[in-house]
């Protein structure tokens, strides 16, 4: 079958471009698979909003699949990256004296964050590591640097840091930078950085399974812990909140707004710091849309957590002790 792809933000082709390309090939039904590790705002709100809008405009049938999720194949792919990292290590340190730290993207959706923690436990128990911790690159807590500074206090000889990301980019680079900062302050601990998931064969196999699920008609999203549908502890205010996309302003923007140094990278700034859309842009650097609207993420109840997003603000480094 013909295959196209599209990005939600900051890259081209956008989702609409991919859908248009399929229509031009005569396609009358589309199987849409979210290339997302877990179901948070992007998979639950933004992508469905784009797809539903396109269907309403064109009549094209689009069947939406499931995210990659906590899957035996995905955990095995992450395990393969961990093993590659251990095999390349210069020193022989017992697994029982090694701490595994898994880094997730981080979300305002506690369900998605909990899935990263589950992956951590599966890897820790699968390998037999001495301990396991879960940290996040943004939005929630604990963030990478403060999380690692707490983790080294456990006294393990080696720390293996695993970015649970599909591909590289600014976030994976920043994870390694933050790991380096902590490692420099603790020369007595060996820090190892594992690779991201990438196009591992088992990741590709997981995508194949998601397509087969849609074809069989048995795709089902887990809604039992969805903060928009259930009274999840601490997120009760989100039940029944309108689920809509906030990414139309940044579709296809390859360089975002960092060129104008206004610190407005659109809907999801890499650090996860909430961004106001109330400012205006210079006339020669326009997005082609009005930023004066009140269109933003729902408030995250732990935005001021001392180990969370506030530590990422400019000129505010994470605590070392």
Features:
Rossmann fold; 321 residues; 32% helix; two-stranded parallel ribbon; single chain; disordered C terminus; four-stranded parallel sheet; alpha/beta
The CATH first-level class of one domain comes to Alpha Beta
Secondary structure: number of strands: 6
Low-confidence segments: 231-235, 254-295, 314-321
Query: What is the arithmetic mean of pLDDT?
Result: 80
CATH architecture of one domain: 3-Layer(aba) Sandwich
Short description:
This protein is α/β, with parallel strands linked by helices and 321 residues long. The protein is 32% helix and 10% strand. Mean pLDDT is 80; it is low at 231-235, 254-295 and 314-321.
Question: How would you portray this structure in words?
Answer:
Among the domains are: 15-69 and 202-238, no CATH class; 72-193, Rossmann fold. The chain is built from seven helices and six strands. The chain has helices spanning 15-24, 41-58, 72-87, 110-127, 144-151, 170-185, 201-216; strands spanning 29-32, 61-64, 98-104, 131-136, 158-163, 190-193. Residues 231-235, 254-295 and 314-321 have low confidence and may be disordered.
